[in-house]
Write a structure and sequence with these properties.
19 helices, 2 domains, mainly alpha, 440 residues, Growth Hormone, Chain: A
Length: 440
């Protein structure tokens, strides 16, 4: 029992550290843009690059984990996070900073890798609780990134040196505590698929982020959108013909996981759209410091921790899809609140409280919802797809949010986040799969 607890605790810490890098850039963007002399739509690529790298790394490293061991691959991912943090800490120009962020993004697969490791050490009846804790740790890391940026007063070098230290500590703990059964699967990574996924996502996100500046009907914008569609089509065709594709296309459409897949994408989008807009509103309209932005979002972080602790008991009483739908409804309410009223401290604190309840509840249950209706052999694949689409949703939100905010539309940005969360509630309800038997 103690060994299982220590393993899950170390894996949860690693997932949290890997998630910090995803949100730590959010409150830094306005100041970093002024420091580097670039517009928000350009500096936002320091956020998008890490998210995009994570989106591609999730299926790729999940596959490598199957082949060479999830513990080994987790250590490699943490090592790249440390290397990227050091590079970002010493950078004073946009290009090397983006390169460092790409390396940091490779830590995104730590969640599906941790889920696979948990399956080996946790008894079956406790696995939903363990997966819920690991999934909810993303919430802790997401909120913690905002707090970390505030504690060092928006100094990006100090932020990344702090990430370096946390990454080193995580590496040591995983190496010392986590063990793995020596099971391996033959095969090879789908590098061509990784390249195609990267290409169409870059085309899509670049068109979204630059569309307002270039013109939405300009040849470069339309060309990028067309290229994204064309390359995505080629990727789907090749993935269906590849023995071990980067992403199993049937898993994206699996009847038992499609609700979790769509809800995960939409909740990832809603969270990042909401927090990036809160940061911009707080620093712009209310004149808040980076630290104050973190304080505004402190209720979100605290409630994520509380909900994480309650995730196991809640999932023994209610279906995962019902919890995801409830959490999504709360996120909708928080985003609508800010779309209507965001001019006072009370608005930001109140909406952050509701947002924390909703995201904490939704994220804690998404991991279970993604895997509970597939056969055990597909658990890792289902978890990887769920984590992938969540990060892709966050990436799209980064580009969309920057474009909307650049046009001065904070209210519209919150409204879009609300719409995404509402759709997540609908999909998780309608496509939640057959209800799992509840226990007291």
């Amino acid at each position: 029992m103690y060994k299982n607890f220590s393993t899950i605790a170390v894996l949860a810490f690693a997932v949290a550290v890997g998630t910090l890098q995803m949100t730590v850039m959010v409150p830094l963007l306005p100041g970093l843009g002024r420091q580097l002399g670039v517009p928000l739509t350009t500096v936002s690529w320091t956020l998008t690059a890490g998210l995009l790298s994570g989106a591609v790394s999730i299926p790729l490293l999940s596959r490598l984990g199957d082949m060479y061991g999830r513990r080994t691959v987790s250590l490699v991912a943490i090592g790249l996070l440390v290397a990227g943090s050091v590079l970002s800490a010493v950078s004073d120009a946009l290009a090397p900073l983006i390169a460092g962020r790409v390396l940091q993004g490779v830590a995104a697969p730590l969640l599906p890798l941790a889920m696979g490791l948990a399956r080996q050490v946790v008894p079956g009846h406790r696995l939903p609780s363990a997966i819920g804790v690991l999934s909810a740790t993303i919430d802790v890391g997401s909120g913690g990134g905002m707090i970390l940026a505030g504690l060092v007063d928006g100094d990006h070098r100090a932020v990344f040196w702090a990430l370096t230290g946390l990454g080193v500590l995580s590496f040591v703990l995983v190496a010392a505590v986590v063990r793995e059964e020596p099971a391996r699967r033959a095969g090879r990574p789908d590098l061509a698929g990784a390249g195609l996924v990267t290409a169409w996502l870059v085309c899509l996100l670049l068109a979204i982020s630059k569309g307002a500046a270039w013109g939405w009907t300009s040849p470069p914008t339309l060309g990028l959108f067309a290229a994204a569609v064309a390359v995505a089509g080629v990727w789907i065709v090749t993935a269906r013909r590849t023995a071990t594709p980067l992403i199993e296309i049937p898993m994206l459409l699996h009847p038992g996981t499609i609700g979790a897949t769509v809800a995960s994408f939409l909740l990832g989008f809603a969270l990042f759209a909401a927090i990036t807009t809160v940061s911009a509103v707080a620093q712009g309209t209310l004149g808040a410091s980076v630290l104050q932005v973190g304080v505004y979002l402190l209720p979100t972080t605290v409630l994520m921790l509380v909900v994480s602790a309650l995730a196991g008991p809640l999932m023994r009483r209610f279906t995962a899809s019902a919890l995801v739908a409830s959490g999504s409804a709360l996120v909708t309410a928080a985003a609508l609140w800010l779309a209507v009223s965001r001019s006072s401290d009370a608005d930001l604190y109140g909406a952050a409280t509701v947002l924390g309840l909703g995201i904490g509840l939704g994220y804690a249950a998404l991991g279970t919802m993604a895997v509970e209706h597939v056969e055990p052999a597909k658990t890792a694949a289902a978890g990887g797809v769920n984590a992938l689409v969540r990060v892709v949703g966050s990436s799209v939100a980064g580009a969309v949010g920057a474009a909307v905010l650049a046009a001065g539309g904070a209210g519209w940005s919150f409204a879009v986040a609300a719409a995404a969360a509402l759709l997540a509630a609908v999909f998780s309800t309608v496509h939640g799969g057959p209800a799992r038997r509840r226990t007291a």
